[in-house]
Amino acid sequence: MSSSDSRVLRLLRSFLGSLDICITLVAAVTFGVLGLVGAASQGLVASGILAVLSLESFSLLRMRAQNTSIDRSLRELTERPSADRFFSEVDDRDEIREMIVSSQEVWLAGWTLGIHLVSYPDEIRRAVVRGLHVKILVIEPNSAAMGIAASEAENHSAAELSANLEANLRRLTAPISGPVSGRLEIRTLSHVPHNTVIASDPSMRQGKIVMRIATFRADHWQRPTFTVTRQGDARWYEFFKSQFEKKWESASEYDSLP
User: Fold this and answer.
1) What strands lie across the sheet with 208-213, from one edge to the other?
2) Which residues contact 14 (CB under 8 A, 6 or more apart)?
3) If phi over 0 gives left and psi between -120 and 50 gives alpha, with beta otherwise, what is residue 122?
4) Of 99, 194, 237, 249, which cross-links 200 as Cys (Cβ 3.0–4.6 Å)?
5) Tens of pLDDT along 46-65?
6) Using one digit for the tens of pLDDT, what is the confidence trace for 147-170?
């Protein structure tokens, strides 16, 4: 919890207490003045005083309950949050499809991006025709890095991973008839990346980056996944953005469209 959140809760507690005190004080002064000037009978003044005392007692009980509730909320907010509230095991396919369809620029990076290049080739090609700029970053087929990736993957040899990747990339970069307003760039890495990156409009205010942490011989759906945005997570957003940019600059050109 941020210090500003704590200050807000404490200010709320102080305001509620001050409000009750003000109401009680106004009522007490009012009945006191009425008694002094004889504008009200002694019985009415006594009844009013009893009402003020009752109000004060009720106010104290309510403030105690409020303080207990606020203290409990403060404790919960200052405790370390569970990782289950931060990570998910899967990336949202509908979310990724929407990122491709509605963005001006998309980044995709990973070992071979097998799931993504099989799931969204048509969406990517149509979006490129309309004007989308796509950057794809994968491991160099048939490289030593692909052999390392195969040893960390499950039930796939380096030859299988390389063949599947090349087939997916050929399908993605097949010639398109007619004008193409966007661009698709593919580069390859000589090392195994630590995570999968899916980013939309990374240089714009609404930028979003989905990160999937690499795992060792685990199912694709068991990879810890989290999202950072430029507006909500500026520091870490810039960190992950710059990491992709550094890898992109260090990679080798593979193919492009058009």
Assistant:
1) 225-229, 208-213, 195-200, 105-109, 133-139, 183-189, 252-257
2) none
3) alpha
4) 99
5) 555 555 555 556 666 666 66
6) 999 998 877 899 999 999 999 999
